[in-house]
Amino acid sequence: MAISEERPGPKWQARFEALWPRYRPWFAPAADDPPLAARRAALAAHMPELVPAWERACALAGDDPAAHALLTGWAPPPVVTGCSVAIAPEAEPVMIRNYDFTSGFFEGTLQHGRWAGGPTVIASSEALFGALDGVNDAGLAAALTFGGRPVVGAGFGNPWLVRYVLETCATVPEAIAALTRIPSAMATNIVVLDRTGAHAVAMLAPDREPLVLDRPVVTNHQRAPEWPAGDAASETVLRCDLLTRLRETPGTGRAEMIRAFLAPPILRRDFAGVMGTFYTAVLRPAAGAVDYLWPDRPAWSQAVGAFEEGAREIPG
Asked: Does the predicted model carry a pTM greater than 0.90?
């Protein structure tokens, strides 16, 4: 479902009411988890521009403290996902990504708005406030992948990091500066691309210093695979090597890369098990646009300046 609101409002509230019963059992704070005041303080300290939107969302969500806690993004339950990302080897800056996860937790909401009063953003929503990927009208695209180790520590869920850079940044250097100062609760890779063609991946974890590389292909490991069971199940090395070889093959362009993302092994089908691909996104930051693709149904194209509300039925 695609909704357009400058800030969280009645449309966001309707999505919250539909989705919160599903999120509530997953987000069940334990007795030793941070209290709400500490979570809000963390958001204010690290992402102050998002506090007004958070307060607005809390008012729309009602008086459930667990909902308010989730919406801060601080100290979330651990999540293991998949995903593949590649920067296409063409003159126009283009990021292609597959979002892979298991059925039952994909939110399925595209949000269009200006939550922090900065750029206008198209974001694929996660946990009602974060973002899996998106573009803004300042010329930035961002997308996350799982970082390959099931570690957990003090920090924010990775969708909040993506949301923050899309709402506040215009360039890769600005985004990297933000991503490397904000603590991440889990191992995650966040790829950013701007309208100039500059790109980078911030490889983050709660137990290590951030690592920034200019890799054009990112899957579900960081400098090297480190979780044998998870790496084998997700085929992270296979996917990374295939996309890297394809990208380096003379004559490869955006079309060839997209075809690879729409076919196995980059496309995943195991929705009930390890992971399935819910969509392929072709993010074009210079145009402020994104095309959502599937191998067996029509594309859905969206642009910051020409956003279409509506709904599509997708796999999973």
From this structure: yes
Q: What is the pLDDT of residues 83-114, one digit of tens each?
A: 999 999 999 999 999 999 987 778 999 999 99
Q: Is 105:19 a contact under the CB 8 Å cutoff?
A: no
Give pLDDT, residue 302: 98
DSSP state of 74: B
Beta bridge mates, 112: 4, 122
In angstroms, rounded to a whole number, what is the distance separating the alpha carbons of residues 58 and 67? 7
- The pair of structure tokens assigned to 214 is 């200019």
Joined together, the tokens standing for residue 79 give 């999540």
- Tell me how far apart the alpha carbons of residues 222 and 202 are, in angstroms, rounded to a whole number: 9
DSSP string, 106-164: ----EEEE-TTSSS-EEEEEETTTEEEEEEETTSEEEEEEE-SS--B-SSB-HHHHHHH
Helical ranges in the chain per DSSP H: 10-26, 36-46, 51-61, 65-72, 158-168, 172-179, 228-234, 236-248, 254-261
Tell which residue, 217, 272, 267, has the closest CA to residue 246.
Answer: 217
